[in-house]
Design brief:
Helices cover 43% and strands 14% of the residues. It contains 15 helices and ten strands. The chain binds ligand AN7.
Length: 348
């Protein structure tokens, strides 16, 4: 039964008697065997289906703790900058906690579903003429001046809660996967996964850590390039980030596990999205398909060893951004409402 992160993993989280028992029943997401693509890639492939969280992304795991702590500590409001998913999650949990929520989005660069979520959950939404990195600087300054709790991943509770995804994977597999492949934007999630696996390893629950493969988009790949990107560009708007806050811990995760950062093109991302949906029935937003794009590339180049157990993290639901998916497929054929028209269309 779904209990939410604070109940399921409370013993590993910094809860006190005064921490409110906030929950939208986040977490406990399925680890789906991706059979058809796994066969094509000759690996034992799983998808951690984070799009099934209450607001449709992995952000809920850390947001529940960050907002509960904000409430416990007496914050008057929460504030965040976001490429979309953080804002949807912050707005939902603030609503559940009865707190005001302020959201700064890069104007015109957020998928429609995410924008609609932040608004319907009742957040005050501001569209900043500038990119995500600028919006985050503004949110940090606003939080410091007003005494609001900032709920971006600069808030340590966010990453502490996000470790739960690593724990669920280990609890289910009985060990860590050989590889963990995930999209990297602000680099919080890869840092949280690493901390989660390390924590289990310290508890004696794991013998080895997975190799981390962090995937960025070609136009927004500061960790691949080793330099900040001033004007990040990609169809995967969730990871359109040029100055990742958690760059240092992300590098550590990759170096420590002999992993790597890679970047993939927008075309590879969109092809991977369609492959994942049409081969295995999983619809994830573009950013979440960067890992599959990377695996397909490694396979083509003969760099994907056979027989590995690989988990790719589907960080966000495909329904968040229907426009980008629809733009890559043929529109439906319109036909008359007659059996003859149906016969003709389907060759019956
Ligand atoms: C679907 O919502 O940064 O490397 O403001 O929405 O932890 O940043 C979202 C990031 C991957 C990257 N996949 O995670 C935001 C935001 C999806 C995302 C990432 C994001 P991090």
């Amino acid at each position: 039964m779904k209990k939410g992160i604070l109940r399921a993993y409370g013993k590993y989280l910094p809860l006190t008697a005064d921490t409110p028992a906030l929950s939208l029943c986040e977490g406990d997401t399925p680890l789906v065997p991706v059979c058809n693509l796994g066969r094509e890639l000759s690996v034992n492939l799983f998808a951690k289906y984070e799009g099934l969280n209450p607001t449709g992304s992995f952000k809920d795991r850390g947001m529940v703790l960050a907002v509960a702590k904000a409430l416990e500590e007496g914050a008057r409001a929460v504030i965040c900058a976001s490429t979309g998913n953080t804002s949807a999650s912050a707005a939902a949990y603030a609503a559940a906690a009865g707190m005001p929520c302020f959201v700064l989005l890069p104007a015109g660069a957020v998928a429609l579903g995410k924008l609609a979520q932040a608004m319907i959950y009742g957040a005050r939404v501001l569209a900043v003429r500038g990119n995500f990195d600028r919006a985050l600087e503004m949110a940090r300054e606003g939080a410091a001046r007003a005494g609001y709790a900032i709920v971006n991943s600069v808030n340590p509770y966010r990453l502490l809660g996000q470790r739960s995804a690593a724990w669920e994977i280990c609890d289910e597999l009985g060990r860590a996967p050989d590889w963990l492949v995930l999209p990297v934007g602000n680099a919080g999630n890869i840092s949280a996964y690493c901390a989660g696996f390390e924590f289990y390893s310290e508890l004696g629950l794991l013998k080895s850590l997975p190799r981390f493969i962090g995937v960025q988009a070609d136009g927004a790949a500061p960790l691949v390039r080793g330099a900040e990107v001033d004007d990040p560009q990609t169809v995967a708007t969730a990871i359109r980030i040029g100055r990742p806050v958690s760059a240092r811990t992300a590098r550590r995760a990759v170096e420590m596990t002999d992993g790597r950062f890679m970047s993939v093109s927008d075309d590879e991302i969109m092809d991977a999205q369609r492959e994942l949906a049409s081969s295995d029935g999983l619809f994830a937003e573009p950013a979440s398909c960067a890992p599959l794009a990377a695996l397909l590339r490694l396979k083509r180049e003969g760099e994907l060893p056979k027989g590995l157990t690989v988990v790719m993290v589907l960080t966000g639901n495909g329904l968040k951004d229907p426009d980008s998916a629809r733009s890559r497929v043929r529109p439906p054929e319109e036909i008359d409402g007659t059996f003859e028209a149906l016969s003709e269309a389907l060759g019956l």
